[in-house]
């Protein structure tokens, strides 16, 4: 993967480089999340699969950079940075906000004349065509913090530290704004199979909202529900890693 210019943080992190891997897995974090969320996958998959993880502006080593509060613009910037690495079969995996970004990046690949991803794995997110009138990005700090706590995706000790909150709340708010103001382009589909993952007790996604993902592909769509809330993925790492490994093995065979 091409390195960022000196002094410029990279959009995509490769925690375990695997230049000989026949397939790449590009992972997109949730709202407020960072590339490090996918470090365990990189460790588990190298050298058979090279895992790339997106690092959005406004967090960790990119916290001084302006947030991007348009989901389509964020997808475009992620795609532009990813494009040099689309030189072998690519799987896109996104959780929550990352699922929408994966979908938009897949469409950008098609628009650019590239082969579509060999598989799209979307997790913890209702289909692009299913909207709610969520306004979490407009909440005062205490309300936004309560929303984060309700989803149980961030360590409680982190949320109790005022300095850490000062750093992470703007990124969460900006990402929520990107998601809540996003509207998909009707009629567009991705030419790739989908796997849709949901948590049985996820307050952000109903079964019906998740099933609507099948309208956004002209390929097969598989659905898998697992016990847990919005961050069920952290409790089912082994199961999800096994699923991704199978998808990667199939993807490698498309070369």
TrEMBL record:
Transmembrane parts of this sequence: none
Pfam families the UniProt entry points to: Thioesterase
Highest taxon listed in the record's lineage: Bacteria
Matching SUPFAM superfamilies: alpha/beta-Hydrolases (SSF53474)
UniProt domain Thioesterase: residue ranges: 24-245
One MF annotation (Gene Ontology) recorded for this entry: hydrolase activity
Record's keyword terms, sorted: Hydrolase
UniProt record similarity statement: Belongs to the thioesterase family.
Name under which the protein is recorded: Alpha/beta fold hydrolase
